[in-house]
Amino acid sequence: MFDWKQDPHRRYNPLTREWVLVSPHRTQRPWQGQVEAGHDAARPQYDPQCYLCPGNPRAGGARNPDYTSTFVFDNDYASLRPDTPFDRFEQAGLLVAESEPGICRVVCFSPRHDLTIANMETQDLRKVVDAWVEQYSDLGSRPFINYVQIFENRGPMMGASNPHPHCQIWSGHSIPNEVAKEQASQLAWRGQRGDCLLCGYLDLEREARERIVDENECFTAVVPFWAIWPFETMVISRRHLASLDVLTAAERDALADILKRATARYDRLFQVSFPYSMGFHQRPTDGLSHEEWHMHLHFHPPLLRSATVRKFLVGYELLATPQRDITPEAAAEKLRGV
Ligand code: H2U
Ligand code: ZN
User: Fold this and answer.
1) Does the pLDDT at position 28 exceed 70?
2) What are the beta bridge partners of residue 168?
3) 276 lines ligand 1 (CB under 6 A)
């Protein structure tokens, strides 16, 4: 008989309509919990060399104010620029290019150089949520901005250039690839079935409770059934809502709370300040109502078994289909257990 806990299989991701290969039998060797503690260097509360700390100079000549809460500025090395003129190039349908105007910003979460989401106070994280809402609304209200991508690269392993707690926002004219896939799937689902894909998914997960890592009254953190990264999680709002700007005050508090809980679990399980890329997926700001959109966050952590063993998406995964060994159910159990 086929054993879903042991035998190789593939799982379907209804949000991207792509598959992931699961090979649980490859995790024969028992996992000992945290294998090696990570070596986080102790950081000072203020670093005179840090370009994000209050009062310090940034590259390009600007100087940060003596900010005491969150601080937002236009990225000095922005990938997108607002003054980019519209243009399009096409040759035989094979060589196609479009200009891409946009605005890139950096959001400092705290004046404290040594903090992370996991060890910030929930009331201070609430201010970060407020800053995200404000940025989503401000950037999204500009006619040439059709999507606002908020994301955080945490840790040098993920390419973060600075440990000071911060995230980036890239907002542009086009709908980015991953968002476009999720949008098409949610729209098709709603068109065919009349209800919301992620509301339905959340109901299943909240009944099974097998892959749920944590939750509060407004958000659920789950290792998705179709997760690619070993400890990948999604944070999904319980209410069907499309974007950050419609969160109630209670939901903003709850978002701060679930972010702290979820990242603190990662830190505890791996005994290290856990690296990840995380970001929101939500309603494009193209002027349409997008009833199909159900806002959520993805955490994509690179670590596999310990603070020092990382997963690489290479070989078969790069050329064919992503693959994982540990099942999402086993990963969720470990995250729940710490
Ligand atoms: P990351 O750590 O995720 O790379 O984000 C840091 C961002 O800060 C990065 O996009 C910007 C970089 O361009 N930056 C400035 O805007 N000003 C600076 O003085 C240094 C870095
Ligand atoms: Zn700093």
Assistant:
1) no
2) 106, 151
3) no
Token reading at 55: 């009062």
- 166 catalytic residue (yes or no): yes
Q: Which of 166, 173, 281, 296 is catalytic?
A: 166
pLDDT > 60? residue 189: yes
258 in Cβ contact with 237 (< 8 Å): no
> What is residue 276's three-state secondary structure?
strand
Confidence of residue 33 (pLDDT cuts 50, 70, 90): very low
Q: What is the DSSP string of 30-45?
A: PP-S--S---PPP--S
Does the beta carbon of 71 sit less than 6 angstroms from any atom of ligand 1?
no
For residues 123 and 245, what is the distance between their CA atoms, to the nearest angstrom? 19
Question: Which tens digits make up the pLDDT trace of 240-260?
Answer: 999 999 999 999 999 999 999
DSSP conformation class of 172 = E
Question: Cβ(174) to ligand 1 under 6 A?
Answer: no
Tell me which ligand sits closest to the C-alpha of residue 164: 2
Q: Tell me the pTM.
A: 0.95
Distance, CA 47 to ligand 2 centroid (Å)? Answer: 5
Distance CA 76, CA 216 (A): 37
User: What whole-number distance in Å separates Cα of residue 200 and Cα of residue 178?
Assistant: 21
Look at residues 271, 241, 51 and name the one whose alpha carbon lies nearest to residue 162. 51
> 261 near 221, Cβ under 8 Å?
yes
pLDDT one-digit tens code per residue, 225-240: 999 999 999 999 999 9
The tokens 């986080």 sit on which residue? 40
